[in-house]
């Protein structure tokens, strides 16, 4: 007996002695019919947040009230709405209104829609949301990304310059169908599909979109009259360099100050320094008014700065929307709601919220509004301005309406260049470099995904950029399934603990045992891999022990160190399909050839069930032999190593 | 203090007293550079079976020999090939030849190719495989499924009746590109894609295909002259009922006996009753010879049974092959290899095997052979006939060649009706009802997948049927990721064991603790769900304890039973992405609001690393606080419950 072995021997001995372990049987899973299982699985899939919890055990009358409140959250906070609430709601409402007006105009421009549509969109939807929405901080209205994508997607079909009317109609019908899709997804509790936009994808996408948008603004900033409507950096740049000679001093003269005015106020500053919310709130409006006055004074519109033109509306015609668009604009809305709900720690039912926003857009589309959702920047301002309830949205909408009635004529003089500046500052805030750095440090693959969506958006197209990024993320998930982790466990001497042998230096392998932990559900995608991998672990084991004997006494000596049992820790195998069951049969056969026994530790209910059923089918090799299934690795080792010692004596 | 609580109290007390647990620190993971990680991950993905293991630590000369042997397995068994080997190889070779000839002709017919192509295909490829193949039992040649799909796919483009020559060329080029694809997939170590054909999918598909094929054979069985070449049950049936008047007595008179001769020999009988291998081997040939003689005697070909017509070959032109085809025919080849390797317990490198079969087809296509692979039925016979090495393939190929030279003229008289009977009996063996029943009993969803591919193949098309089935399987995997299992753990009184509270009846929840085990990698797809689910578990906990207090003493009493710690058992969280990291930050924040601490148990190396990095980024909430990370749940509970008791005293 060589020292090292003795060491190991002792380990296992000590264990056996130390814990005169009373072995615990692996209980058979509680009986449940396939129907019950199906029911619970469906519940987990579609109602993970259990929205009906509050209804449980309530009198039917109360149930009706609760249902009404669930449908119309206004009934929850409405009754006990106080004056103090109202005060702070008015303040915040006016604040976001001062943001909503210039942004509304700008974003409409971004979508190649007449600016007044932007204002309408900050008027009707907020009212609807105030009734249906369950978030207290979200400020709804047009948002940059959605406007951008809508514009670029529609421009591919119709030229907003040539056929503005059809373009407008397309815009409204897109809004309608986006709303319809969203509402139905919410109703069908399929909201979770938006989770497939990973953080990395969004960061990359936003940055890419921001750059494209800013470049497109060069049009108004440089006063270029003929400009490409395409997304994609190449067409944009080309038409910039093609026309830079046209730069008008006047444009710069106006752009300079307004940009300087706006730039120190990135979109999320108001999140970081709440007290300063009025800055980000006031500035855009200020610059609009300022510049309007200047232009009015200079009558600059005669000197060639093209000014806002107003169009009138019509009813909508049918058009299908690309998934990526719906995806993104849903995503923003819900994300905003979740974020602020988390801040004030109240719950927002994602699917309910989707329905609210969806209905909001359906109604909006018929009142000449284009796509709206919860705006991140304005919601932040709203939150910091101390909004208490959705009433702040109402106040905003009223303010906007007043503006529409009284001040609209004045906006004729607002130069595009200022709107351009507003857009640029708004979207530049979407470039989140710290997040990019964090992603790089935390997860290299996510960083790749981020780059993919970034360059995809910049060089190819919004849709493709997203598709690639989402595809990569899903592919990685599949790969994790196809190549699950298998860890070799070792014992920490003098304890019942078994930990990853390659992570914990003080863990030692127990002679005669190969202890593996399988870290994923076993199914058709990984059954073959697992078999090969386990075989390889066994080969490694043999190799180690033989070579190490050679070194020690030059001869093969196979008594205690040779492999007797392969223990599979099944704690993490959360599911098993038919191919997975077959794996165990094959494995068992393969091990028997080598005179090694297969031991299972702590299999979950489902796994036990399926293996049992499989056995009742195929008479022959039994996988769940009572003496080869244990609740813990420690117990298995304790029991079986004594068995080994017996064998050795004979 | 109410009794129940006392009970629980004692539990946790006992625990603390019993195990004066020496707390083990969670070790930081061993330092590895991103490059090292990438390297090991790539290895796991592409070389899970570690084919280069044998090369390790060998002298360079030896390495060359090994490399040569790896490339050409013949060099392994060639040198020590004995006479006794040869004897048994000859026997088995002749046996499978007697199968290969009739099946070759029949399957070629199945692919709408001239029968001699079938014979060629049992002549050249076996020779190639004998040199390159690593399996000792596989008998290569045309197989029913591949022939069927090839035929149906090509018929959609060219009519074999109208333009037989072009059809032939398409056949060869398809073979060439199938071979090329397979060889390159093998070379790129991407063989694992065939694992995505789950057992359920295959069972369903095979059955569907078998039915279609058998129906198509009604043509020759009923002597129908004009027959649809389409797959799909409806066109087939229609043309059957349309022509049944044409049934010739003579056809039945021949079909009857030959079918009876063949039927008692289903394709896998030779697997079940090895001794009878000669039956399944001899019968087809027997019936061919018999019927040929009969027809020759009766000169029946004048009486209207259309007999085999022979065509001549040309070089191939380019065509692209549908994935499903490559998929299936690869799958069969590799599956066969693996099965028999398992039986004789020698290893077959799937990717290497793919390359072998791929090259075999590339060469084959240029020598007027169509797609070949390892045939399950013939390999079974080969195995039971006692084949020792690939020499049996050589023997077969020689026998086939001799047949080609001498007996081919005779085959002119072989009536299609017999070939039809051969095909039908061959494919009917593919309908595996026991498997279907097993799948139903083990996994209902898999059964759905099976039905999907079955009906997809029968009513729609081979490609679509497969696509649907594979899609369903993958969708389920994604769903498992999106809705991972979370188990509530409870303590088994008097032990350190923590098991699923809803599975083990004797487990009790520890007051003040909510112990959850998360059973999947945490990523963008499930981060949101997990947060909501954990919140819901907490709500459940609160609900339970409050109500149960109400019942007991009517008042809320929140000392020890109220929730203090949420313990997440991270043992099974095998990966974490950036969104996952964010989850922990949010969760921590959300819990702090409720005055609950978040405790992590046994996180794996990767998780620790990523959380640490995230913290070094975001100053603020620390997730990995030393006193809130433990190696085992028992230790965590022991430590923290004393902390709770302290709090209570104050």
UniProtKB/TrEMBL annotation, chains A, B:
Record's GO cellular component terms: membrane
Organism whose genome encodes this protein: Linum tenue
Mind telling me which Gene3D superfamilies this protein's record contains?
A: STAS domain
* Domain of life of the organism encoding this protein: Eukaryota
Q: Where in the cell is it found?
A: Membrane
Recorded GO MF terms: secondary active sulfate transmembrane transporter activity
Annotated membrane topology is:
Multi-pass membrane protein
Task: Please state what the protein is called.
Answer: STAS domain-containing protein
**Transmembrane annotation, as ranges:** 193-215, 247-265, 277-298, 310-330, 354-373, 394-411, 417-435, 447-475, 508-529
Question: What taxonomic classification does the UniProt entry list for its organism?
Answer: Eukaryota, Viridiplantae, Streptophyta, Embryophyta, Tracheophyta
Keywords attached to this entry: Membrane, Transmembrane, Transmembrane helix
Domain (STAS) spans 503-640
Question: InterPro entries in the record, alphabetically?
Answer: S04_transporter_CS, SLC26A/SulP_dom, SLC26A/SulP_fam, STAS_dom, STAS_dom_sf
């Amino acid at each position: 007996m060589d020292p090292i072995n003795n060491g190991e021997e002792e380990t296992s001995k000590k264990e056996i002695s130390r814990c005169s372990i009373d072995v615990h049987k692996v209980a058979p899973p509680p009986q449940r019919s396939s129907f019950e299982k199906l029911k619970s699985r469906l519940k987990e899939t579609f109602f993970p947040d259990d929205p009906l919890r509050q209804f449980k055990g309530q009198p039917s009358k109360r149930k009706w009230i609760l249902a009404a409140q669930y449908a119309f959250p206004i009934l929850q906070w409405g009754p006990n709405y106080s004056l103090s609430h109202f005060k702070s709601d008015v303040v915040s409402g006016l604040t976001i209104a001062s943001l909503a007006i210039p942004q509304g105009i700008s974003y409409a421009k971004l979508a190649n829609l007449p600016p007044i549509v932007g204002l309408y969109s900050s008027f009707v939807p907020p009212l609807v949301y105030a009734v249906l929405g369950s978030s207290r901080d979200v400020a709804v209205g047009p948002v940059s990304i959605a406007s951008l994508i809508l514009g670029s997607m529609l421009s591919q079909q119709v030229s907003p310059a040539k056929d503005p009317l059809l373009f407008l109609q397309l815009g409204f019908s897109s809004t309608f169908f986006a709303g319809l899709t969203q509402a139905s997804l919410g109703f069908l509790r399929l909201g979770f599909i938006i989770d497939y936009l990973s953080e990395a994808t969004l960061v990359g996408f936003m940055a890419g979109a921001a750059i494209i948008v800013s470049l497109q603004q060069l049009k108004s900033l440089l006063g270029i009259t003929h400009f490409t409507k395409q997304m994609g950096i190449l067409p944009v740049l080309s038409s910039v360099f093609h026309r830079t000679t046209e730069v008008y001093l006047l444009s710069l003269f106006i752009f300079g100050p307004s940009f300087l005015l706006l730039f120190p106020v990135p979109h999320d500053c108001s999140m970081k320094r709440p007290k300063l919310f009025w800055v980000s709130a006031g500035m855009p409006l200020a610059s609009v008014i300022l510049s309007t006055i200047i232009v009015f004074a200079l009558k600059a519109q005669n000197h060639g700065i093209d000014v806002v033109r107003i169009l009138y509306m019509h009813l909508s015609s049918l058009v299908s929307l690309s998934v990526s668009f719906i995806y993104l604009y849903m995503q923003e809305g819900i994300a905003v709601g979740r974020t602020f709900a988390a801040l004030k720690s109240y719950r927002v039912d994602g699917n309910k919220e989707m329905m609210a926003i969806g209905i909001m857009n359906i109604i909006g589309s018929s009142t000449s509004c284009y796509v709206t959702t919860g705006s991140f920047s304005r919601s932040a301002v709203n939150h910091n301005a101390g909004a208490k309830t959705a009433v702040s949205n109402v106040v905003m909408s009223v303010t906007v309406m007043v503006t529409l009635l009284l001040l609209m004529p004045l906006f004729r003089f607002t130069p595009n260049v200022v709107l351009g500046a507003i857009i640029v500052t708004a979207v530049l805030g979407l470039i989140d470099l710290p997040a990019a750095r964090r992603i790089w440090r935390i997860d290299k693959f996510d960083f790749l995904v981020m780059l993919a969506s970034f360059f995809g958006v910049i060089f190819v197209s919004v849709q493709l950029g997203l598709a690639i990024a989402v595809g990569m993320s899903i592919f990685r998930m599949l790969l994790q399934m196809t190549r699950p982790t298998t860890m070799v466990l070792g014992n920490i001497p003098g304890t019942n603990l078994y930990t990853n042998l390659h992570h914990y230096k003080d863990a030692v392998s127990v002679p005669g045992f190969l202890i593996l932990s399988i870290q994923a559900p076993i199914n058709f995608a990984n059954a073959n891999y697992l078999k090969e991998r386990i075989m390889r672990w066994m080969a490694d084991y043999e190799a180690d022990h033989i070579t190490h004997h050679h070194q020690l006494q030059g001869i093969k000596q196979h008594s205690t160190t040779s492999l007797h049992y392969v223990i599979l820790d099944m704690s993490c195998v959360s599911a098993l399909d038919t191919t997975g069951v077959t794996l165990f049969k094959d494995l068992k056969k393969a091990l028997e050839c080598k005179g090694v026994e297969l031991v299972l530790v702590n299999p979950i209910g489902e796994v036990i069930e399926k293996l049992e059923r499989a056995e009742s089918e195929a008479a022959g090799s039994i996988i769940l032999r009572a003496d080869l299934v244990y609740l813990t690795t420690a117990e298995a080792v304790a029991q079986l190593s004594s068995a080994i010692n017996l064998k050795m004596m004979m």
